[in-house]
Design a protein that fits this description.
This protein is an alpha+beta fold. The protein has one domain. Strands 1-2 form a two-stranded parallel ribbon. Helix content is 34%, strand content 11%. α2 links the parallel β1 and β2. α2 runs parallel beside α3. It has 5 helices and 4 strands.
């Protein structure tokens, strides 16, 4: 480790929990515009309740989406049904947006801030992570 606030130990220590603190960790990579990440946020609560340290790490799943977003296009019926069922089971509202946003600036904002910076933005609070899936079909 380089000694920075956001540095993580080697991946094998994170998974096995044999780091200096002995914590068991789950790495949750997420993008604010990802429907899988949206419905998966409920699992973080389950992991935390069982003593795991959930480390939420942002990444941009689709960097090819232009800054103004793009139309969502066709979605697989099976995908929509599966994500819909997961959202319902988790008690999360789900409205598929007509446009897919570029999430780079939102992810950068989530990671920025005055020192000491948080490791990353938690997904649970109301806000950006839920907006694309709660705003309805015409949302931008």
């Amino acid at each position: 480790m380089a000694g920075h606030a956001n540095d993580l130990p080697p991946i094998d220590q994170l998974i096995r929990g044999d780091g200096p603190d002995g914590a068991r960790r789950v790495l949750h990579w997420y993008d604010l515009m990802c429907p899988f990440c949206y419905v998966g946020q409920q699992r973080n609560t389950i992991f935390a309740a069982h003593g795991f340290d959930v480390v939420e790490l942002p990444f941009q799943a689709h960097p090819e989406i232009p800054p103004g977003g793009r139309p969502a296009g066709e979605r697989s019926d099976a995908l929509v049904a599966r994500i819909g069922a997961e959202a319902q089971a988790s008690g999360l509202p789900l409205a598929w947006p007509a446009r897919l946003p570029n999430s780079r600036m939102a992810l950068a904002a989530a990671e920025s801030g005055p020192p000491p910076r948080p490791r990353c933005l938690p997904l649970a609070p109301e806000g950006a992570v839920r907006r694309p899936f709660r705003a309805g079909p015409g949302s931008r």
